[in-house]
Task: structure prediction
Amino acid sequence: MAKASKKFKRILLKLSGEALMGNQQFGHDLDTIKKICKDISAVQKTGVQICMVVGGGNIYRGMSGAEAGMERASADYMGMLATVMNALALQNILEQTGVETRVLSAITMNAVCEPFIRRRAKRHMERGRVVIFAAGTGNPFFTTDTAAALRAVELECDALLKGTQVDGVYSADPKKDKNAKLYKTLDYKTVLKKDLKVMDGTAIALARENNLPIMVFSIHEDGSFAKVVSGKGNYTLIS
Result:
């Protein structure tokens, strides 16, 4: 594979919990996770420093729990624990592919992962390790999208890449609306004004305030992560 673009020294990959389910209704599909990890490994071998934030919606979604009657803060903490499970699953498969990986959690649980310390995270990446940030921001009422934007800014990443179920940002759900328009480029203001749902408003606002580019692509296309990192493939650029 061609050398990744020099403009990307360090990137953050955001994955939803649903991305790990494959065609299942719940939990983990190991074949899907192995394919995603293979793509991550290919990019890591080019010398690009990679950190990740993963959601927990394939196991538990705090918002759904709150809607069902649970206290929102408690439901969100349960969702954060689900992200730790996903991070450990990704770590396991990545290390089976030969990629040294560290899980850093915003909620301290030393028996299974390291606590999030910014300088430690940077040092891990400088040593060629993939760092997976778990437990969101560690606070209820904030999504893992916001955690991704926060960590990308904190760690001075060159871009935030969001791997989704489709190949970019559309004007409507392309699975429901055949006339949905694919945007190749967008600005932060338009995303917020049109409420395009690619990431929550807090994440978009944080990216805008810090000039953090967001690239939205399909995580399920073979080699798509590497293509986007090298400036090729299909994606929507938000800047």
User: Anything to note?
Assistant: Helices lie at 30-44, 62-67, 72-96, 118-126, 144-154, 188-193, 201-209, 224-229. The chain is about 35% helix and 20% strand. The first helix runs from residue 30 to 44. The first strand starts at residue 10 and ends at 15.
